[in-house]
Amino acid sequence: MKLYNTLTMKKEEFVPLEPGKVRMYACGPTVYNYIHVGNARPIIMFDVLRRYFEYRGYGVTFVQNFTDIDDKIINRAAEEGISSSEVAEKYIAEYFTDARGLGVREATIHPRATENIPEIIAIIEKLIANGKAYVSGGDVYYRTDAFPDYGKLSHQPRDALLAGARVDVSEIKENPMDFALWKQAKPGEPVWDSPWGGGRPGWHIECSAMSGKYLGETLDIHAGGQDLTFPHHENEIAQSEGANGVQFVRYWVHNGFISIDNKKMSKSLGNFFTVREAAEVYGYENIRMFMLMSHYRSPLNYSGDILIQAKNALERIKNARENLVFAAENGADVEGAAIDTESYRARFIAAMDDDFNTADAVAVIFELVREANSALSGENPSKKLAAELLGVFDELVNVLGLIYGEKSADPDAEKIEALIAERREVRAAKNWARADGIRDELKAMGVVVEDTPQGAKWKRI
Q: Could you give the CA distance from residue 220 to residue 52 in angstroms, rounded to a whole number?
């Protein structure tokens, strides 16, 4: 498998530190609001990357943090008249609601910054001791001049980074590029004790502490959005390598931006849609489909038309699966035409092995859909062939997590099946009035029934 490594700016063969195991960290949300569609892209994409590693037989330890103390959280707490911890708890719960809706599995570990204050302090103490950090005015800053490799992830000279950064110019800093590791508490803010007085951690140091605690000093993969490359990930490298003296991350994997009218979607610009808002209109599953239809490093432009295209595409996949399930249960006991299902599996793997190309992997699934529709086009399709196609179909679709809102999970599924069974009986007894009444009842529930040579099938309208 090859991954594009932001550090080297090229695709590289993935070789884990420990054979058969992957240590993977992804930056999670700062929990002061609902996640927006731009946030959803890394959440979905790196969920699929994890699934694919597991599909290929790797044991994956996947860590995704929550930043639960930050200026934005403190400001939201003041706005809502509640504590910072209450704001964090509220939006962590809302995150999991959206993540489940998007079909995203929970990480192996979801650490919180506030649960790792001792580890954060320990790293800062190491950095001070080896001259890479200094105390000034109750704050602690990282001394960027003491880390010669600063800028190696961004591939920019220091003067260019300075020009492009939102730098806090302060008399208490030695260099405008220096960044806060520990912030002295302001009145009314949450506070933790430290050797430098009461305060709270800076944003960047939190991820260095949490990734190191749960994954070790060197990670296989660190993932996140392209916007985190600088300063956040650049600063993580400086902190972790400055403290430990070993390579921090072997493969840096960044997804591209999502834009609206060709401007990056972000809360700070105010041009964003929350996942919750988008899901109410288009459905969670279709947001996931929208993300996976493009390569993770390609820019994406969000629009209602594109979400509808994704919905229609996913509907084709769902319909094909329903037809396969139905034929596997109700088809004829004949052999059917020979189909090379292994070729679909091989092409799917080739696509995913080539820098995690979900767009090409989805294309392989659509080829399989066409093959399945053709194989089931007759009046009495082969039960055996349908089962064979269904096996590889589910295998590949499950890697991408594309279908998870199955009919079996429909809260009315049992009632719907009972009505369809009754309709079958009354039709056999030629009680057409009752049969039509059942069809109308199902329609009122948002269910349409299709009569086929193999029996009746249903789906939500």
A: 15
Closest among 401, 112, 101, 359 to 255, alpha carbons compared: 359
Tokens linked to 63: 């860590």
* CATH fold group of domain 304-394: Four Helix Bundle (Hemerythrin (Met), subunit A) (1.20.120)
pLDDT at 410: 61
Q: Show me where the domains of the chain are located.
A: 2-255, 304-394, 408-460
Place of tokens 């700016």: 9
Q: Residues near 291 by Cβ (< 8 Å), separated by ≥ 6?
A: 40, 41, 44, 45, 300
- Whether the per-residue pLDDT at 71 is higher than 90: the answer is yes
Residues 234/151, Cβ–Cβ less than 8 Å: yes
| CATH fold of 2-255 | Rossmann fold (3.40.50)
Q: Alpha-carbon distance 39 to 34, whole Å?
A: 10
pLDDT at position 408:
46
Percent pLDDT > 90 in the chain is 73
Give the CA diameter of the chain. Answer: 90
